[in-house]
Specification:
- The protein has 509 residues and is of the alpha/beta class.
- The longest helix has 22 residues, at 357-378.
- The strands form five sheets. It has a six-stranded mixed sheet, sandwiched between helices. The protein has a five-stranded antiparallel sheet with strand order 4-1-3-2-5, with no helix packed on it. A five-stranded parallel sheet has the order 9-8-18-19-20, sandwiched between helices.
- It folds into three domains: 8-129, no CATH class; 142-184 and 416-508, Rossmann fold (3-Layer(aba) Sandwich), CATH 3.40.50.10350; 203-409, Glycerate kinase, domain 2.
- α17 (470-474) links the parallel β19 and β20.
- The chain has helices spanning 21-34, 37-40, 70-82, 84-87, 159-173, 191-198, 232-236, 254-265, 285-290, 322-325, 345-349, 357-378, 389-401, 408-415, 418-422, 444-455, 470-474, 489-508, and strands at residues 8-13, 44-48, 60-66, 96-98, 109-113, 119-120, 128-129, 145-150, 178-181, 202-209, 215-223, 227-231, 270-275, 294-296, 314-316, 328-333, 404-407, 427-435, 459-466, 479-482.
- The protein starts with 7 loop residues before the first strand and ends with a helix.
Length: 509
């Protein structure tokens, strides 16, 4: 297919795995009712399922308008962009494509050129008819725009899936409401997916070493060719491990370091490390070892595991990779735990990583030793809030690389330009697996509520279950709903979403 000058591609998300004939009919019906025949006369129209990149699903249908002058094409763009019903159907990430982007599309159906009578029927078989007068349409506006900003429902529903299902329910019940999906995360599992939905970039993949020495494929996300986002859970995460054979004495964070090293050697000088969901409690010595740092006992032997952290007598960073040294490192986390003590990395998270009471004692002795060594190396107290994230990796990043510590939720909202986007909305919907007293302590849901409150935008919350302290959150939001099921999670989520959307109807009528 040859794309001509001033062409405009419009991408419609069917919210399905595949585009069906009825989906195409719906899209074309809405388009032909939007324009009158004079507005589109002589335009050539194509349509088809064409992926832009690997992250595209096969549920996006693209319509291309060609052969118009600049003024006419701007008019077509403006009418589609301002129409409430069509706006609700557009692909949220890349709804429009200009002529210098849409090229080499395969399998595009040619509908034909629009005649003076509004008929477009000279193409591959399908005929379109534009009326003499267009329908009266409701305009896209703040009053009918909703921001969908759920976190992952841990262990059951990814954030993107939750946003997609919420959008589908709105489309069924309130088709003139535009939903803007901004799935969120807080530095733990799912952070990369949330970032991918928030800002356009490219995934890079490589083989790394998982917590127990197995070679696996892991990815990181590159934005603007200058920023790399690494999710520690994808290289050293608990989800990668067999729960019946967890052993935090041996689990290593080396895979995270391997990803950091690759990103730095690709010329990236700003590396964000999302800390959360890790299977390790090694204070990041595996990660640092991958960067060229050596941890030595009193006899000069190198130590590689958490089991022997208490034997480490010195840190040798003389051979640390030069590219890493030149990089700016930002650590993103969802916890404020220090490195050691009752609320430190070991005693707070060690048990879920497989540590028995006896192993916890061994790990804590090692952490106390590392605390002294890292403070001495950095010449300051590095074991501050968040140092215990990802089994102590936060402290290691601060000490060795002078990493900046950021709330993962705040960082992702900032990257997604959340504050700018909620200015154009009348409601924000967020959610997570369990709503409880921790939801307001560094978690994504709490951050969304706080930002919406500052902007004066009401919030609705959907959650899997109601925990201790949920009443505090409920008093801060306009609507709340719970799916209350761990089995068949999506079915019960959809039911809860319909109940929630029904509650909001008075806002949009």
């Amino acid at each position: 297919m040859r794309i001509m000058r001033f062409s405009l591609g419009v991408r419609f998300d069917t919210l399905k795995e595949d585009v069906t004939p009825s989906d195409i009919d719906t899209v074309l019906k809405e388009l032909t009712s939007l324009f009158c025949m004079k507005e589109v006369e002589k335009l050539h129209i194509f349509g088809g399922v064409c992926k832009l990149n690997d992250s595209d699903g096969s549920g996006i249908y693209t319509v291309v308008f060609m052969n118009g002058g600049l003024k006419k094409m701007r008019h077509v763009y403006s009418k589609i962009n301002l129409d409430a019903r069509l706006h609700s159907m557009l692909d949220a990430r890349e709804p429009f494509l200009q002529n210098n982007v849409i090229r080499n599309f395969e399998n595009m159906e040619f509908f034909g050129a629009v005649g003076a009578d509004g008929v477009c029927a000279q193409g591959d078989g399908r005929s379109l008819r534009f009326p003499a007068r267009a329908d009266k349409r409701k305009l896209f506006s703040k009053e009918n725009t909703v921001i969908l900003a759920p976190n992952a429902f841990k262990g059951t529903i990814p954030a993107q899936t939750a946003a997609r299902h919420l959008r589908r329910v709105f489309r069924e019940s309130l088709p003139n409401v535009t939903c803007v999906p901004i799935p969120v995360a807080d530095g733990g599992d799912g952070s990369l997916n949330a970032l991918e939905n928030a800002v356009i970039g490219q995934r890079h993949g490589m083989e790394v070493t998982d917590p127990y020495g197995k070679r696996i494929r892991a990815e990181y996300y590159v934005v603007d060719g200058s920023k790399a986002f690494i999710e520690s859970a994808l290289a050293s995460g608990l989800a990668l491990c067999d729960r019946d054979s967890l052993n935090p004495l041996q689990a290593s964070s080396i895979g995270v370091g391997e990803l950091m090293l690759r990103a730095a050697h690709e010329g990236i000088r700003e590396i964000y490390v999302c800390l959360g969901g890790s299977a390790t409690n090694d204070c990041g010595i595996g990660m640092a070892s991958a960067l060229g740092v050596r941890f030595l006992d009193s006899d000069g032997n190198e130590v590689h595991t958490a089991e022997n952290m208490s034997c480490i007598a010195s840190i040798d960073a003389s051979q640390m990779d030069a590219q890493i040294r030149a990089s700016r490192i930002i650590a993103m986390c969802d916890v404020k735990n220090p490195l050691t003590g009752e609320y430190g990395a070991t005693y707070t998270f060690g048990s879920q990583k497989g540590a028995s009471p006896e192993i916890l004692e061994v790990l804590e002795r090692g952490m106390l030793n590392m605390e002294k060594l890292l403070n001495a190396y950095a010449g300051k107290d590095v074991c501050t809030d968040g140092a215990g994230a990802a089994g102590g990796m936060g402290a290691m990043l601060i000490a060795l690389l002078n990493a900046e510590m950021k709330s993962g939720a705040e960082a992702i909202l900032e990257i997604a330009e959340f504050d700018n986007k909620i200015k154009e909305a009348s409601l924000v919907i967020t959610g997570e697996g369990g709503l409880d007293k921790t939801s307001l302590s560094g978690k994504a849901v709490g951050a969304v509520i706080e930002h919406a409150k500052r902007a004066g935008v009401p919030v609705a919350v959907i959650a899997g279950h109601r925990g201790d302290g949920a009443d505090v959150v409920e008093r801060m939001v306009k609507y709340h709903e719970y799916s209350q099921s761990e089995s068949d999670a999506l079915k019960f989520f959809d039911m809860a979403a319909r109940r929630l959307v029904k509650k909001t109807m008075d806002m949009f009528e």
